[in-house]
Amino acid sequence: MKEILAKNVVLNVNQLDKFRTIKIQIDFLRPLSKDESTKRRLLANVLSNSSKKYPSFKSLNDREMELYGAEINAYTRSLLNFNDLGFSVEFADPKFLIGDKSQIQDNIEVLSEIIFNPNLKNTNEFDDTAFTIEKRNMMSNLDAVGDNKDLVSVLELFKLVNHNNPNKQIPIFGDATQLDSLENSALYEYYKDVIKNDMILINVVGDVDPTEISKLIRDSLLGQSLKSERTDIKIQLPNFDDLVKSPAEKLDHESINQSRLSIAYVTEKLDKGFSHLAPQAMNLIFGGDDQSQLFLQVRERNSLAYSVSSSYQATDHLLTVQSGLDAKDIDQAIDLIQKQIDFMKNGKFTDSQIEHAKKVLFTRREIGSDSIQHYIMRSIWETIYPKTLLDDKSFRAELNKLDRNNIQSVAEHMHRIAQYELIGD
Amino acid sequence: MAEKLQKFTKKLPNGFEIEMVPLKGYKQIYSVAMANFGSVNTKLADGSRLPAGIAHFIEHKLFAKPGYDVSEKFAEYGANSNAYTSYTKTAYLFQTLENPYDNLKILLDLFQHPHFTEENVASERGIINQEIQMYLDMPEWVLEQRILEQLYPGDPIAADIAGSTETLQQINAKNLLDTYRTNYRPDNMSLAIVGDVDFDKVVDIVEQSPFETDKGCPKTAENSFVEIGPGAEGKMNISQSRSAFGIRVDTNSRGYDLVKLQYILNMIMETLIGESSENYQDMTNKDIIDDSFSYNVVAENDYCFIIISGSTNKPEEFQDYLHKCLLDNKLKDVLTKDKFERIKRDAIGAYLFAQNSPDAIANQMAELYFYDVDYLQLVQLLDSISLDEVLNSADEVFQNDNFTYYNLLADGKD
């Protein structure tokens, strides 16, 4: 059931009885901006630290435990060209509890509290303790990023890929320099702007009566706070033409045990009538699972790496390869990766590889529907970018018509655009 | 109350346990076969030791069969497959939409028919060595090994689950097969399957696929632990220091009692240093911890310990604070009846959350079998815990002799 609470404020309820929990998620969307990513992440953390009614981290945690371990989450993530600031609460379905009739209402109340009834010091600032501690935590997390070499490698690759887009140069989880200078009053000002202007998607999944939950939400502080119209948001897709002509490359040295190799490729945009599933099938045969060319040739046959895989981002038409290996083997690995691309371009893959890829695409889609998050993400895409979604019937039709030529053609139109090497000395 | 989960169980005459839970509305079928054998099982009865990493090596190499790899067979029948090795268990699993019985036969083939050759062992060394190198760059992993070396000095649990570059060289086709035969016995394994399958058919398939190994006594030695280490520190090329405070719990509890003890210890830790505790708030306010702070209670076979860890700018204060607050043990003051009720509710919620996930149900069910605990009886187990039991356990655990520490200090110059 879909309901428009105000312009660009959408409530979607998906009634399903297969799960033992109920999840309510609220996503605030606006275009990614280099000046806002840090603020949004800190805002997520400060708001989920405490609220006016639960004025300390401890009291909020006590309340979550009381509600049978309700899980509150606050986060930011990239979604197309948007920064998605999200809050969710997932809790045990009261049907499985003895005598807890107000479980749904109580959880809506907690979620409303953290977003719309923040813990304030005065009319211009968040509570000092909440702000200071969350700022310190976030700084500490940003410091620790450098200790995760896989993440460093991915971030550096995407800096190269997005070199023309300043808004994507700052990671979604923020930047230490910006954080350092961020003041409490500035964050609160920003909060007011978010609450007033961001596009809002509310999703509920679980065994709930749609009419009943809609009324509970509309009557709650949450519903009462979302009556104003919101700004339209516009989808913008990236363009990598300059990198196709001149790929970006970077190499760093560090004192680490294992070197990392990351490569990005762009597949040209698809013509009308082309199979939407072809790039995903190509990725699967190339490096997407343990039957792929990369896994079998780089890892199993040549024992060069423990981890080597590729993944495909459909909205950006980007295929990336990640590998962890010995520094001395990097050149050989690059050569082997290129050989697998040539293998794909020359259509040397077998019919059984195509069948396997089709089977995996179908299986992943079906098994995905065994998770509560699947329904929330699907609903978000249906609202903001419906044309990329295939219903079950269209998906099967696309899968059936997918053939060797489609897959080979994707490989033929694939271009290396960036490469990052982190060499362990 | 809504519909509860149902479980079907059968123990075969050879001791192999089969458990199945149907899950309404789910499309997938998930199955895991588990051996009660992990990285710590390297001590032999004659006093000698197997090379560290041998359980993990077996896990990798059981996929190799004459002329094919088992993962190819799973893929052919529409399943994805995986495996993992922990300190005390090794598990093999598949997840599929279709052909559950064919995939079950493949799973049985996977762990029942080893094919170790010097050639395939040699090629695997390079892959596992890369896996070891990957973990050596992860400070949290390094810290865990170092604190385990303090908790159990010289014990196999302190070694990397995958072994080391040196021990990999000592692993060969012969010791792999000998170790496999000793530990992959039907009475030392269980099979859990979650999803819409016919249990009788599952049992029939397992019965038609006899083990080559025999039911019998394990040849590994009984564990005895030396005195706990005094604590230590070391440096690593990282941006942020990490600290771990360790508590060893030497207990005679086994099986059901050990699982119960694990729940009790979790309740104690949540009350004293969990996110809803005064101490957590105090340590945060004093900038001793950040939100990476956590504790982990492990109670598996002969091992029972707690590791409290996190990033910190103040490793000494981190250790001093925890040492003092746990030794003071103000549990009686803070674990009120209300708090105890909240903690129990939290645990019941966690149990329901896990029931959304076929893999969580299957893995937990397979493992709990080795502790004589019925997965569906976990709520009753939780209910049976009394406030007094929790308070008494804390008095026993929080003794100075049970404590140790490790600080992994940031050293950018290394």
TrEMBL record, chain A:
PANTHER family: INACTIVE METALLOPROTEASE YMFF-RELATED, METALLOPROTEASE
Name used for this protein in its record: Insulinase family protein
Domain Peptidase M16 C-terminal, residue spans: 185-361
UniProtKB/TrEMBL annotation, chain B:
InterPro entries (UniProt xref): Metalloenz_LuxS/M16 (IPR011249), MPP/UQCRC_Complex (IPR050361), Pept_M16_N (IPR011765), Peptidase_M16_C (IPR007863)
Transmembrane segments: none
A Pfam family recorded for this sequence: Peptidase_M16_C
Residue ranges annotated for the Peptidase M16 N-terminal domain, each copy included: 52-162
Taxonomic superkingdom: Bacteria
Occurrences of domain Peptidase M16 C-terminal (ranges): 171-345
Name of the molecule in the record: Insulinase family protein
